Amino acid sequence: MLGLLKYGTTIVLILLNALVLITGIEEEGILTNxxxxxxxxxxxxxxxxxxxxxxxxxxxxxxxxxxxxxxxxRDSPKNRRKRSLKHRQRLEEDRRVKNVFQQExxxxxxxxxxxxxxFDINMNDPLFTKQxxxxxxxxxxxTPGLDLNVAEAWKxxxxxxxxxxxxxxxxxxxxHPDLAANYNAEASYDFSSNDPYPYPRYTxxxxxxxxxxxxxxxxxxANDNICGVGVAYxxxxxxxxxxxxxxxxxxxxxxxxxxxxxxxxxxxxSWGPTDDGKTVDGPRELxxxxxxxxxxxxxGGKGSIYVWASGDGGSYDDCNCDGYASSMWTISINxxxxxxxxxxxxxxxxxxxxxxxxxxxxxxxxxxxxxxxLYGNCTLRHSxxxxxxxxxxxxFALALEANxxxxxxxxxxxxxxxxxxxxxxxxxxxxxxxxxxLEFNHLFGYGxxxxxxxxxxxxxxxxVPERFHCVAGxxxxxxxxxxxxxxxxxxTTDACQGKENFVRYLEHVQAxxxxxxxxxxxxxINMTSPMGTKSILLSRRPRDDxxxxxxxxxxxxxxxxxxxxxxxxxxxxxxxQGEVQQKGVLKEWTLMLHGTQSAPYxxxxxxxxxxxxxxxxxxxLEEELDEAVERSLKSLLSKN
Length: 640
Hints:
This is Neuroendocrine convertase 2. By secondary structure, the protein is an alpha/beta fold.
C-alpha cells in the first residue's frame, strides 16, 4: 500500500472506481466475463434486469460503494476476449450504466497446499509419494512444506555423487535391489564377525533390519521402480556391522568409528547408551581417541563427520546424559513428526544441533518413514530418532558434493546457519533467540535441516577460522544443595583474552561438573551466558534413582550460545525438582569455551538480526498505514 501512495490522486481514483485495472494491464492480462458495473440508479431489481438483458446469469450487489454490482456469466470464467469486448461495449453504451470495469484474471494459490507435480521431479519409485520427509504435500495428515527441502538441492544438481556414508549398525542388506548399485563394498566391514561382509544376521522377527532401513534413507537409488528414494540417491553407502553381539566393547566401537576414514566421509550412528532414563554413559578411552583422530585426520585432515541420533528416551531422559550425542565432535540430530510436533520418544537437551523427521503420534500407517527393508522388501514403518540421523547424513552428503572442502566444523556451522524453525512446534519449550539472534529450541536445536539452503551456502562457503579452547574458570569448593533452594554460582571470565587461545566467538561450551545427590534424577542444572542465553544442561529424569555415582567430571554441553561473545559472567544454577526433599553436594564446576577468534559471518548474522528487528517495526507501521488508507478509501467509496 505504501508503494501505491506515490501515484497520488490517479491511483486513488482507480481504486474508487472499484479497485480494478491499472492502465496497460488490460492488454497483457487474462480478461474474464466478469464485470464490475456501477449504475446511476443502483437498485437490485434494476441490476438483475439489466444483467439478463446483456446476457449475464445475474447481478450481485456489492457491499462496498454505491450502485456497484458484480455481473457474472452463465458459463465458467475463461479467457474470452472477443465475446467479452462486445459485452463491455454494449454495457458502456447503455444509459443506465455509469461505469464498467472488466475483471482481469490473476493467479492465487492456497497457502500450504502443494502437489508433487509442482516440483517437476519425476520419480517412478513406488514409495516416493509416501516419503513426506522429502517433499511434504500433506501426506498422512501432515503439514505441507514441512520437509527437508531436498527438491531444491536436487534441482541444483546435487544428489550426493562422490560421497560415501557409513551406516554403523546391525548390517546392511547389500543385495537389496534398491541399494546394490550404491553399495560401497570397499568401505564396508563386519566388526561383529570380523569379515568384510556386513550382511544382517537372520532372525524370525527381522530384528536386524535397522541398518538396512537407515541405509535406504540415505542412498536408495532413484528411478529404479523399487521402494523409495534416498536423500542423497547418488551417494555411496557403506555397511559397518558392529551392533549384533551380546556386548559392545571399546575396541569394536573405536574400530567402527575409525574404519577407512580417508574413504568414508560421513558416519551415521543411530545408537547409544540405553534410553531407560537412568543411564549416564558415553564413549570409552579408545573410542574417544578414535573420534579425536577422525575429526583431526579423517578426509585428508578436513575431518570425519559423525552424525548421531539424540536418543529415544522421551521426557524421561536427557540426551546430555549420552556422551555420544552430547560430544562436540558429533552432530546430534533430533526428530519431528510430519505435522511439526515432537515425537513422544524425543529427548531434549542443549547439545542437539538440529532436527530431521521420524514417525510419531499419528496412527496413520503412512506417517512413518518409507525406506528399504530386509530381503528386498520395502517398509512404511521405520521410526525413532534412528530414522532422523540417516536423513541428516543424506543432507550433509548433498552439501559435501556442493563443496568437498568442507571441514567437520564447517558442517556444524552450516547446520546452525541454515536450519529453520519452519513449522516445528514444541509444546514444552519455546523458541528463543541467543545473544546474536540465532533462533533455537531446547528440543529441536536450530530447527529442521534445509537441504536447499545448505547446498547454496556450502557452494560459496569459506572454511571457518582456527578453533581454540579456553578454560574460562573453575569452582572447586564444595557447595551444599537442598530442595527448595537453588545453588547459584558464577564465573567471570575474559575468555583468555590476550593469550594465544583467546575465544571471541563461541561454538561449543562445556560445563564439566562433579555432583552427587540423594536422587540424581531430581537434579536440574541451568547455565546462563554473559549475553543472557539460558541453557538447560540437565532436566529432571524421574526414573533415575541413583544415590551413589552422580556425575563425575561430566561434560554437560550446550550449542545454544553459538556465535556469542563469552566474555563476562556465566551463572550456574543447580536445584532439585520433584515432591520429595533431596540434598546433594556440588564439588566442581569447570567452564570450557571452544570457538574462534574471528568469524566474520557471525557479524553478518547480527546485522541481519538487527535488520529483521527494524523491518518488523517498519512492517507494523506499514500495517497501521494500510488500515488508515483502507478506512479512507471506504469512506470515499461510500460518498461517491
